[in-house]
Amino acid sequence: MIKFYNREDELKLLNKAEKLKNKHSIMTIITGRRRIGKTTLSLKVNSDKKLYFFISKKSEKLLCNEFIEEIRSKNINIYGEFNKFDDLFSYLMEISKLTPLTLIIDEFQEFLKINPSLFSSIQKIWDLNKNTSHMHLIISGSVYSMMKKIFEDIKEPLFGRADFKINLKPFNIQTLKDILEDYNSYSPKNLLDFYTLTGGVAKYIDLFVLNESFTLDNMINEIISKYSIFLDEGKNRLIEEFGKEYTTYFSILSLIASSKTSKSSIESILQKNISGHLFRLEKDYNIIKSIKPIDAKINSKTQKYEIIDNFLNFWFRFIYKYQSFIESENFDGLKFIINRDFSTYKGRILEKLFIELLKNKNYSSIGSYWERNNKNEIDIVAIDNINHKIFIAEVKLNHSRLSLNKLIQKSEKLVKKYKNYKVEYKLLSLHDIDNLIRQEATI
């Protein structure tokens, strides 16, 4: 287990809610993708009485039996049998009227499969007892679409009940650097590879730390091996989200990860309309995002798509795409393909890394730019409308492949739109990472 990194703001919020429960019960929602660290965060909360309920795929009666054991282990008296969760929840709310407690319910969305009526029951019990009890109810879930429906759909009983909401994000670039430095493994190259393969997701980082795998070769060896948890990670995470249509969604994501990033290019390969699928992948599942040229109008149809999560992008690009290698246990063959293509692949991730670092510089907007038919593509454009500045950058792994003259030529049409803006051109490569991290630290 790696040490607890960079969740200070989230812990402050949880501990603030802990204090507020002395006035009346408080509900906190923690969302975020699987393996991001929701459980670890929730268990860090400071509480004298803390119960942890994990909602696994069992019958309601069996779950209640498990929860009763957890309650007794925390020296809370409980009498009789409880075969229904709403009865047990009501009992705990009564207990909290005299003994303040914290109840953590993990993978809360699984109640949809066990007993969907529980959401209405929980809402009723909560509303009747909230103002006279002292419970901090922490609810976490990792199936994005389900959690969004449960708590953000106005038609659902638990809509509007949360007092606080935490959407747990991956670790930032500075934290990844801190981790590598703690294990004497930092270099700009290792940082980029670490970012490319983990995306800042705590569980993946934990596995690499456990095996002391911080170079590209060592990390690839951990991912591409017979008993690796990484090999089924995409399926384990997304099949439940997508349901029966998962093969179509997987095909779309595999194409996006392989640089087929426009709707037209994907449809030409799949030979079907995917407008609805793209909409749901972005709005309902939060797995992709659409990208428009930075100066594009709101209603512009010129757009590309990218997978938000770095590891998922890698999984669809190399593991799902070459599933036959995994099934035949040709791991050496797959490693050869990854090593062959990885430099080209992570060039785009380097752009993403620099954009993440630049986001803290108070630009009005930041993104990329291209003209019709993908002409004059510019990797990074950041606009400061307050101080009338525009930052234009080209990104390459190898600095020798960068050309300032070419960048200026490609930017001519864009710069004309910002006549009174001071233009800064920048050529960014792997070894500029340190400079930008230092600049970010001073902001």
What do you see in this structure?
With 443 residues, the protein is an alpha/beta fold. The protein has 4 domains: 8-167, P-loop containing nucleotide triphosphate hydrolases (Rossmann fold, 3-Layer(aba) Sandwich), CATH 3.40.50.300; 173-223, no CATH class; 231-328, Arc Repressor Mutant, subunit A, CATH 1.10.10; 359-442, Trna Endonuclease, Chain: A, domain 1 (3-Layer(aba) Sandwich), CATH 3.40.1350. It has 21 helices and 11 strands. The strands form 3 sheets. Strands 2-3-4-1-5 form a 5-stranded parallel β-sheet. Strands 8-9-10-11 form a 4-stranded mixed β-sheet, with helices on both faces. Helix 4 runs parallel beside helix 6. It is globular and about 80 Å long. It starts with 7 loop residues before the first helix and ends with a helix.
Write a brief caption for the model:
With about 450 residues, the chain is α/β, with parallel strands linked by helices. The protein is about 50% helix and about 15% strand. The longest helix is centred in the C-terminal third of the chain and has 28 residues, at about 330-360.
Percent of residues in helices comes to 40-55%
Question: What CATH architecture label of the largest domain applies?
Answer: 3-Layer(aba) Sandwich
The secondary-structure class comes to alpha/beta
- Main-sheet strand order equals 2-3-4-1-5
Could you report the average pLDDT, rounded to the nearest whole number? 93
CATH superfamily of the largest domain: P-loop containing nucleotide triphosphate hydrolases
| Overall morphology | globular
Low-confidence stretches: none
Quote the distance from N terminus to C terminus.
31 Å
Would you state the CATH class of the largest domain? Alpha Beta
Beta percentage is: 15-25%
Total domain count: 4
Number of DSSP strands?
11
Q: Looking at the chains present, what oligomeric state does this protein adopt?
A: single chain
Radius of gyration: 24 Å
CATH topology of the largest domain: Rossmann fold
Please outline the major beta sheet: 5 strands, parallel
